[in-house]
Amino acid sequence: MKEHAFQIAISLLACVLLIAHLMWPDLKIDAITLTLFGMAVVPWLGSVFKSLEMPGGWKFEFKDFAAAVTNAETSGLLAPEKVALTGQTEPQLNYSALIDTYPKLAVIGLRVDIEMRLRELASRNGIKDQKLSATALTRQLAKLQVLTGQESVALLGILASLNPIVHGAEITYANAEQVLAVGKRLIDSLDERLRSAVS
């Protein structure tokens, strides 16, 4: 219902701008004005569109990732935010060197680190098939009750929303920053499970 109201509000705003343009045809709207308007509106469109694809090819699934994060928070899969923000993650998790220049590469590095931890967790819990995908490993860990059902659903959602980036989809700096903040908390949580797992 909220999304529907937001869609109506956007349509009404467009109609008001159209009427203003008809009433004042001499009013100049240049490229800078349109760009600034677009920058003001685009962050809010994540609640309306499943994805946003712009010229130049960047695309990221806003709703899918947000839903996966909500599930991860609810299930307890993510480490508390204060732990992740203190820099207590492994030293090799320094994505800040990449994010400014290559946000996509930083997210890909995060996705690889998540899969490495899943493989180690699987190995420590008797899953020997190293050819399994991260998705299959997550399901196996759930069957062994290393992850709860809710945690595995949340993790599968996060993996599914990161996979397009690994396979070439683009991601903005702002979205990459959000993904990395959540990803570091996920890695902290997986590291904690690894510390408590039988070797």
Task: Give an overview in words.
By secondary structure, the protein is an all-alpha fold. The protein has two domains: 1-48; 56-196, no CATH class. Helix content is 65%, strand content 2%. It is built from nine helices and two strands, in the order ααββααααααα. Strands 1-2 form a two-stranded antiparallel sheet. A hairpin with a 5-residue loop joins strand 1 (52-53) and strand 2 (59-60). Helix 6 runs antiparallel to helix 8 (149-166).
List the helices and strands and how they pair.
Elements: H1 2-23, H2 31-41, E1 52-53, E2 59-60, H3 62-75, H4 81-85, H5 96-99, H6 103-124, H7 134-143, H8 149-166, H9 173-196
Helix pairs in contact: 3-8, 6-7, 6-8, 6-9, 7-8
Oligomeric state, counting identical vs distinct chains = single chain
Question: What order do the strands of the largest sheet run in, or round the barrel if closed?
Answer: 1-2
Radius of gyration: 21 Å
Overall SS class: mainly alpha
User: What is the average of the pLDDT values?
Assistant: 76
Count of DSSP E strands?
A: 2
Low-confidence stretches: 83-92
The end-to-end distance, rounded to whole angstroms, is 50 Å
Overall tally of domains: 2
The tally of helices reads: 9
Percentage of helical residues?
55-70%
Order of helices and strands: HHEEHHHHHHH
Sheet-strand content, in percent, reads under 5%
The backbone outline, from C-alpha atoms, is elongated
The biggest sheet amounts to: 2 strands, antiparallel
